[in-house]
Amino acid sequence: MNRSSVSSSNIRSVGYDLDTRTLEVEFHSGGIYQYAGVLETIYQGFMRAASKGSYFHDHIKGRYPDRQMR
After folding, report:
1. Which among 10, 48, 52, 69 is least surrounded, fewest beta carbons within 10 Å?
2. What is the per-residue DSSP string for 21-62?
């Protein structure tokens, strides 16, 4: 999945697959996680958020099934 670099102290890049509603997040720590069933509106809000980390914790983490890719 292609990811776009983002400005964040914790998150390096973010990708989204509209067909499968899969969100992929790469962290500066090196971990890459995929989140299943993420609505496009959540992805768009994430990309527009002034604080990617806060948005991630408030709207994504713990709310969608995830799996570690790396």
Report:
1. 48
2. TEEEEEETTS-EEEEET--HHHHHHHHH-S-HHHHHHHHTTT
d(CA 65, CA 63): 7
Q: For the CA atoms of 54, 38, 62, 53, what is the dihedral angle to 10 degrees?
A: -20
**Token representation of residue 5:** 């670099």
pLDDT in tens, 4-44: 999 999 999 999 999 999 999 999 999 999 999 999 999 99
